[in-house]
Amino acid sequence: MSPLTFASIETIPLVLQLAVGLLGLIVSVKGRVRGVSGLMVAAFAVMLVTTVLAIVWQFLSLSVSDWVESGGLSVDGIRTIYLAVAIVFDTASLLSWLLVAIAVVKSGRHSRQQQGFAPPANYPMAPQPGYPVAQPGYAPQPQLNPQAQQPPTEQQPPS
What we know:
The protein has 159 residues and is mostly helical. The chain is built from five helices and no strands. Helix 2 runs antiparallel to helix 3 and helix 3 (38-60) runs antiparallel to helix 5 (75-113). The chain is rod-shaped and about 125 Å long. The termini are far apart.
């Protein structure tokens, strides 16, 4: 197999990771409307950029043999390049995971802070003992005098 074929096969997991990252970015952007942390959006954005750069690097590194043959780089120079690229990718990956962890911790703390809140004034409460259960959507009507609310009976005029 040619080096291009090997590089293409090696990029399959990266393309799948790119698809998952894009889906995660879409879900996290939609979640921003519901109050999800922007850190999750940033984490997916960093992951997508890193994945795209990794795919580009996969094909760019195919020309290493040309670099050596041209005499422009030594083996130590190529090692230094690979080390620098690896440090950049690992740092970006670490940043992405760190943003995810901070977003998860932040979202957990946010929900715990809201556990002791009081409901709004017009929030439906459970019925008190001895009172009828209110139907949803309707305010209970006070019944002061049940006979007064009876429809009047029609009286026939005397003949």
